[in-house]
Amino acid sequence: MKSVVIMDDNGLHARPASEVVNIASKHNGDVYLVKDGVKCNAKSIMMVMGLGILKGDKIDIIAEGEDKERMEIEIVEIINNTNNK
Amino acid sequence: MKAIGGAEGIGIGKAYIYQKSEINIEKYKTDNFLEEIDKLKKAQEKSKKEIEILYMKALSDVGEEESQIFKAHGMILEDPEFIDRIQKKIKDERVCASWALDSVSKDFIAMFESMDNEYMKERATDIKDVSSNLQRNILNIKTNDISLMEKGVIIIAKDLSPSDTILLDKNKVEGFIVEKGGKTSHAAILARSLEMPAIVGANSIMNDISDGDIIAMDGAEGVYVINPSSNELDEFLENREKLIEEKNRLKHMIGKKTQSLDGYNVKVEGNIGSLDDLEKVIENDGEGIGLFRTEFLFMGRNAMPSEEEQFIVYREVAEKMMGKPVVIRTLDVGGDKDISYFEMPEEMNPFLGYRAIRFCLKEVEIFKVQLRALLRAGNYGNVKIMFPMISSMEELLEAKDILEEAKEELRRADIAFNENIEVGIMIEIPSAAIISDLLAKEVDFFSIGTNDLMQYTYAVDRMNDNISSLYTSYHPALLRLIKTVIDNGHKNGIKVAMCGQVAGEPRLIPVLLGMGLDEFSTSSSSILRTRDVINNNSKKDMLEFVEKLLELPSAVEVEKAIIKILN
């Protein structure tokens, strides 16, 4: 499991959310994002957007199955890239 | 009538009322759920192709960033949770595909619309857009072709979805006004990228308007007039001309030298606080980065950014600026910013407290990490280091000593860096301005930070509504301090820049030019206008004016004198 804080003014908006869902969908196993104890399917753009992840929110990333570490790292990177813009 | 400005620009044209036909969803039951699920699948495929086309059009009309909306639409279309739920409904309740889709969409739309955040509320629009599209393909309904209309129209609608907006023909449409939505709605965002005037939140305009009415609209102000009188119309036409002229004139400034009427060259640069800002400075032909605020690297994290992380960012900026100067300010944070891992104490007076260079001089190891990263980045472009909040000679000398230590560490580790990197300071504290003649001997440049200099000099908190009128750029004390700093800098052979808001104020730019300011660093959106003002003024004439200006006793008189001479 990895954690990251969202720093972008727009929170996890269309573009990075799409990137996260895109990459999670390629994974051979479940991938979840957790915010405030609410768990969601990271392969579903509706669920991810539905979490309403805003600036300042801390989210956990949980992947299962083969290569789960790698998947978690890739998702953290997508978010960090947006944070650092 | 006044509503909310969505995208700037002035539009004049005939009203074209765009009504989306309501789709009637009939609920019927069927045991043949496999057929219904297949209908859904086929509709998905059709919709997928249509959205792909919208995406491609957006890509060519408005660019990558904004066209992502359609990528997101494509994803909603394939969303496992969304589609699974619809299929489940079809199967479990034995209802037709169109009703199942309608029902599930409504649930999701309600969920997003109930969110507190404006941005999230807007996402409901995305789902509506995709659902309509899908619904029409399930029911085989043709769409209202929004592209079939005559020239010179202003679209009036309850709302415009992203698909609607992207299909608007720029050659035929002069602008649009919608009843719903706010500044962050997709329609507004797309309008801005299309450079099409737009007004949002115009409640009940559908009631006030008929097809063919003449409309004049000002997208920036959110103001529109239905069937304007010829006087009103003239005013709008005039303003539109002015806007177009201004835009073209500014575009002409790109690639031009910044040179006063009497041939003095100065530099106009950009202030940045993120890599996004960097793109905008380059687009607006900034001649350098006059202030690179590094705080964003430290915020929103659990631990400090490593030397490597910092180096990568500084190097990127240096390289992208291709040899143009990049002035990077060392860490400027205090207890008011949320940097938990630094454990900064809560203070009564954070702006007079333990922050910025004071913090760095105590936390030497933290300071050195940033300095080493900057020194290394110095080999990839024209990087300069700038210390903030210097109030005394002691602080400056101490900071320089630590920089030397950092250099020695890199030498010993055999890591390449720029030995001769330029080092300067922000002049934002009155004591530094007063001893600037002495400080000038110890640095390679000054950069005047007027925002804080004003606060500290007049003892005014600009956030305090009760006294905000005291925070004025026309105060004689500020102008005298600026002149002193520039003169002291020049006497000691160094250049003086300014990175505060004042550097971009059209009325003060000529005064600063006259005083001899060498570099004007502003926000990216002000770069071209700043160059425009400089190129239209004579430094010598302004210098003469400045000598008299500095004798005036009050901000009010200073402002009056400036307005007079600029007219």
Word description of this protein:
The complex is a heterodimer of chains A (85) and B (567). In chain A, β2 and β3 form a beta hairpin. The radius of gyration of chain A is 11 Å and the shape is globular. A 4-stranded antiparallel β-sheet of chain A has the order 1-4-2-3. Chain A has 3 helices and 4 strands. The longest helix of chain A has 16 residues, at 68-83. Chain A has helices spanning 14-25, 45-50, 68-83; strands at residues 2-5, 31-35, 38-41, 58-63. Chain A is α+β, with helices and mostly antiparallel strands. Chain B has 567 residues and is an alpha/beta fold. Chain B is built from 22 helices and 15 strands. Chain B has helices spanning 33-62, 64-78, 80-93, 97-113, 118-139, 162-167, 186-194, 205-208, 230-252, 275-283, 307-320, 356-362, 364-377, 393-412, 430-434, 436-439, 450-458, 476-491, 509-515, 527-535, 539-549, 555-566; strands spanning 4-7, 10-18, 153-157, 173-178, 198-200, 214-218, 223-226, 267-272, 289-293, 325-329, 382-387, 422-427, 445-448, 495-498, 519-522. In chain B, strands 8-9-10-11-12-13-14-15 form an 8-stranded parallel barrel, surrounded by 6 helices. In chain B, α1 crosses α5, α2 crosses α5 and α19 (509-515) packs across α21 (539-549). The A-B interface holds A 5-7, 10-11, 13-15, 17-18, 21-22, 41, 43-47, 49-50, 52, 54, 56, 83-85 and B 65, 68-69, 71-72, 75-76, 79-82, 108, 111-112, 115, 117, 119-120, 123, 127, 274-276, 296-297, 299-302, 313.
Largest sheet, spatial ordering of strands of chain A = 1-4-2-3
Looking at the structure, what is the overall shape of chain A?
A: globular
Q: In terms of per-residue confidence, which ranges of chain A show pLDDT below 50 for 5 or more consecutive residues? A: none
Oligomer: heterodimer
Strand arrangement across the biggest beta sheet of chain B: 8-9-10-11-12-13-14-15
- Major sheet size, sense and barrel closure of chain B: 8 strands, parallel, barrel
Please compute the radius of gyration of chain B using only Cα atoms: 29 Å
Average pLDDT, all residues of chain A = 87
- Percent strand of chain A equals 15-25%
Which whole number gives the mean pLDDT of chain B? 90
Structural class from helices and strands of chain A?
alpha+beta
